[in-house]
Design a protein that fits this description.
It contains twelve helices and nine strands. The protein is α/β, with parallel strands linked by helices and 365 residues long. It is globular.
Amino acid sequence: MLNVGKWRKTKEKARRGGMNAAGFRGADGSRNLCWYSAIYRLFHIFVVIRLGISACCGSWVYAFLFESVFLVVAYVLVKREGDDMTVVEPQLKPVLKWAGGKKQLLDRLEERMPHSYRRYYEPFIGGAALLLDVQPKSAVINDVNAQLLNVYRQLRADSEAVIDVLRDYDGVSCDKAMYLEMRQKYNEKIASATFDVECAALTIWINKHCFNGLYRVNSKGLFNVPYNNKINGLSMDENNLRGVGAFLRNNDVEIREGDFEVACEDVQSGDFVYFDSPYVPISKTASFTDYTKDGFTYEDHCRLAQLYRKLDALGAKVMLSNHNVDLVYELYDGFHIEPVSVRRAINRDASKRVGKEVIITNYQE
């Protein structure tokens, strides 16, 4: 079982203080373990006392007895601290701006996550804000958007290859003509189902240069979001891309493509499932569900609610976020529903980017 209770608190302290539990942070963002500092402190004590015994007693017998006792005590102390060892992962952020992204809701989601669980499931991965923040050791991520999943697959396979292509793209100032040319190139990749390194780089680049970072396709599945009219601006954070690739590569993260029900077929009791599905619309113009050409319908929301109840009966720990609307309360009646305020990045009117959402859980911890 993955215990994240103490880990969360230490991680938050590390964020505020800029260091991990040992007081060190690798230049490459690598992990550092808290028992490094314990060994250093014990060694310092050993040297001081050992020199003191030699100076005062002048006998190797007393020194030998001290060394023996010290080693036993050191072993016990280091083992105890090692058992409570915390690992502070490099801070990662979403590679893509995505409709419904959870960057603004992370703290509230983390507070409501179960203290322990087996495997992490996220059937609507989107920008992966929660996944990259929690960084579980074992996870299943899923989506129906092939271009999105290709980004994660290519970063896992070779993040440097993606970075190299993006460096070339960022070496040229982006104007409207260039954006339209790159969008045409991207749509050719989509039409031919060519999911390679270049397609992943184009997805990232276009996401940074399109209007409001919106991913939207037409009835043919082709990307149709206009230019954002911003010439300057890099499309990537190289270190973050490397970090995301390393996380996906070094952990048991399975990437699936398909319907959310299929993605959850092997969920077991004790697993944690987070649903960040396309939201129930507040109005006819307020919903961004066409990131696939098929959209997400009322019937899909009903299917999702049925799956939620099925997983609850199975013994899984389930959390879901959605708009604070009557239909959501009807679909998830009987579960713990908590309203929260959140600031949304995707809305053409900045004054309307603060809205009410709900976090729904089948547990309370």
